[in-house]
Amino acid sequence: MSTRTLLVATRNPGKMREYRELLADYPGRIISLEDAGVPDEVEETGDTFHANAVLKASTYALLSGHLTISDDSGLEVHALGGAPGVYSARYGGDACQSDADRVALLLRNMAEIPWERRIARFRCFTAVADPDAGQEPRIATVVGSIAGVIQYEPVGEHGFGYDPVFYLPSFRGTMAQLPVPAKNAISHRADAARRARTILATL
């Protein structure tokens, strides 16, 4: 596998911790946007997870000159027509300023939905961009997912985002109740990261 520095296109400490765990066997340095000194913010203007992942990976690869991995992921609730979907991190707009606000809004919007219809999934689209490929970076993408059920109230101290209400029947608990190593073994981001390792090995 390459010993090139790998930029993870995020400023989110929780996501960065996950990537350091998920790609622990990567032989080169793994750095964040803060580590790389990249001040620019790439606005997620795509209308799909895939489009946003590609946009961020390619732009940050050109800005930094580093091999770059980026993802766009979110929660899709079947009974809400796939919402919050691509807007998971911006669910509720300015009225929601934190993960707790967005979880509370989700639960209010699902208040009348019975247990058997609270099926949901996390999906993660991951893009790897190689800036050494010329003016237009070479892009490869993969996708990972995990299915669960949205429970009625948040439980658990681990994870972030919607993890405290994402119930996993096989574990009899929420994603936020899983120890970090267990979550990193089964999460949507873990699923995508496993596939991305193959791409990184070829670069």
Number of helices: 6
Question: What share of residues are in beta strands?
Answer: 15-25%
| Radius of gyration from the alpha-carbon trace, in angstroms | 17 Å
Silhouette: globular
Fill in the keyword field for this structure.
7-stranded mixed sheet; Maf protein; alpha/beta; 203 residues; single chain; 31% helix
In short:
The chain is of the alpha/beta class. The chain has helices at residues 13-22, 33-36, 49-64, 99-109, 180-186, 188-202, and strands at 6-8, 30-32, 67-77, 119-130, 138-150, 166-168, 173-174.
Task: Write structural notes for this entry.
- The chain is α/β, with parallel strands linked by helices.
- The chain has a single domain, classed as Maf protein (Alpha-Beta Complex).
- 31% of the residues lie in helices and 23% in strands.
- It has helices at residues 13-22, 33-36, 49-64, 99-109, 180-186, 188-202; strands at residues 6-8, 30-32, 67-77, 119-130, 138-150, 166-168, 173-174.
- It has a 7-stranded mixed sheet.
- β4 (119-130) and β5 form a beta hairpin.
- α5 packs across α6 (188-202).
- The longest helix is centred in the first third of the chain and has 16 residues, at 49-64.
- The chain is globular, with a radius of gyration of 17 Å.
- The model has no long low-confidence stretch (mean pLDDT 91).
